Amino acid sequence: MRIVLVGPPGAGKGTQAAFLAKNLSIPHISTGDLFRANINRGTDLGKRAKAYMDAGDLVPDEVTIGMAEDRLDRPDASEGFLLDGFPRNEHQARALDAYLARHEIALDGVLDLEVPEDEVVKRIAGRRICRNDSAHVFHVEYKQPKTEGVCDECGGELYRRDDDAPDKVRNRLEIYHRETEPIIDYYKKQGLVVTISALGPVAEVTGRAMAALHAGADSEKSA
Question: Which Pfam family is one of those matched by this entry (predicted)?
Answer without folding.
Answer: ADK
